[in-house]
Amino acid sequence: MLTKLVQQLWFYRFARWAFRSFARLFYGLKVSGLEHVPAHGGLVVACNHFSSLDPPIVGVSVPREIHFMAKQELFDRPASRLLMLGLRAFPVRRGGSDTGATRAALRRVQDGLAVGIFIQGTRNSGDVAALNGAAFLALRGGAALLPTAVWREGRAFRVHFGEPLEISEQGLKPAEVTGRLSVAINSALPANMQIPVIGSAGQG
């Protein structure tokens, strides 16, 4: 019964409103590039990851419902699991390839929903290269790929959405898309948070 309750739309909207208000008041949240966020259709919101607050910060910044991959551990405790389900999160097992989570994400983007992915896989100080999951998902699901940067200026959080990447080229590989994605995100990030770009895929 509680699971059905938290999965209702009113709970999701209330939770978004409450945290967005909190983030603006206490963390000075400012969002830019909202005009770049597609209002409809499958969407992969691909973001860097440096803080445990990144998921809710980015989640309330996207002007549409968004589904995030979240580590399996957050679903192991009943209270935390209810919150994750209410916030439209779905579990992923870290440390290897989780085909179940990949299929769940793919179904969502193919159904025209937005899925959020932190491309470095785990929180870090900016020295971890991006993985290919977001690129694979966008290519396979025929979804728009939105470069998203999150960082802090002092205490204040900043989120910037770049223009969706053009990934319709024939034969384009996930690694190439990941390189371009890293470059696009880096264009908004402070120098000390830049994502390493592997090889020449992100150049040009």
Care to describe what's here?
There is one protein chain. The chain contains 7 helices and 7 strands, in the order ααββαβαβαβαββα. By secondary structure, it is an alpha/beta fold. The protein has one domain (2-193): Glycerol-3-phosphate (1)-acyltransferase (3-Layer(aba) Sandwich), CATH 3.40.1130. The chain has a 7-stranded mixed beta sheet, sandwiched between helices. Helix 2 (9-27) packs across helix 3 and helix 5 packs across helix 6 (133-141). The N and C termini lie far apart (53 Å). Residues 200-204 have low confidence and may be disordered.
CATH superfamily: Glycerol-3-phosphate (1)-acyltransferase
By DSSP (H or I, 4+ residues per run), the number of helices equals: 7
Q: Show unreliable segments.
A: 200-204
Which descriptor suits the 3D outline?
globular
Q: Taking strands numbered 1, 2, ... along the chain, how are they ordered across the largest sheet?
A: 1-7-6-2-5-3-4
Helix and strand element order? HHEEHEHEHEHEEH
How large a portion of the residues is in β-strands, by DSSP E? 15-25%
Largest sheet: 7 strands, mixed
Question: What is the C-alpha radius of gyration, as a whole number of Å?
Answer: 16 Å
Name the CATH architecture. 3-Layer(aba) Sandwich
What is the domain total for the residues? 1
**CATH level 1 class label:** Alpha Beta
What does the secondary structure layout of this molecule look like, with pairings?
Blueprint: H1 2-6, H2 9-27, E1 30-32, E2 43-47, H3 54-61, E3 66-71, H4 78-86, E4 90-92, H5 99-110, E5 114-118, H6 133-141, E6 144-153, E7 156-161, H7 174-186
Parallel strand pairs: 1-7, 2-5, 2-6, 3-4, 3-5
Antiparallel strand pairs: 6-7
